[in-house]
Amino acid sequence: MKARAVPLLVGLLSLAAAIALWEAASLFRLASPAFLPPPSSVARAFVELVQDGEVWRQLLRTAGLFVGAYAIACALGITVGIWMGCSEFADGLLEPLVELLRPIPKSALVPALFLFLGIGPLTMVTVVVFAAVFPVLINVYQGVRGLDPVLQDTARTFGCSRWRTIRSVVLPATLPAIFTGMKVSLSLGIVLTVLAEMLAGQSGLGFVILDTQRSFQTAQMYAWVMVLAAFGAACSLAFDRIERVAIPWHGR
């Protein structure tokens, strides 16, 4: 218990010190309030957003976009990763395409997607899926390729079909790799969700952050950034909890 409490206390103290320095910088005019308003002003703006319900409206839009696109990316990455890992044909067919597309900055695809899909939800979902799918796919592929061949040979010896071998042997054995890829994709997915909303959205956290920045409502802008930070932290904590339940033996 004490081992957990000490890092938490240190983290809270460092956060408090950073906020105090921020307030002092604004108080002594070390930074212009037009660009860096004091934390007290940001806190008031945050309370106002919560009171009028705007936080929940924009947060739900961002969460809906992220969760939907993230689920598609994970399902696609796991399916294709296992297929490539178990099939030499699929590996030879898809590996060149994966290696060609993987290094492309995902934001660079936005202008092309505007041409084909227009500005709207479909473009935003496509951007997030394209960004989040590769970490899952690569980790699953490497996890399957790294399995002990004896596991699959034993399953075949007992007469298991290919599908049953994948379901009962390959999938459970690659769960740590799956969750590793999903964790990397989680942060990438949030970043690209916000970016997509800035470029192609009419609502959501990314849209309102950019909108308040353009109108020089800096206190509100930082308040929205606080909401985004809280959303990201909540997603990360929820994922860690799910991972501990799904693969309790991993990391011990």
Automatic annotation (TrEMBL):
CDD domains: TM_PBP2 (cd06261). Residues 59-243 form the ABC transmembrane type-1 domain. GO terms for cellular component: plasma membrane. It comes from the Bacteria. Its main location: membrane. It is found in: Cell membrane. The chain crosses the membrane at residues 63-86, 107-138, 186-210, 222-239. Keywords: Cell membrane, Membrane, Transmembrane, Transmembrane helix, Transport. One of its GO terms (biological process) is transmembrane transport. It is a multi-pass membrane protein. Belongs to the binding-protein-dependent transport system permease family. This is ABC transporter permease.
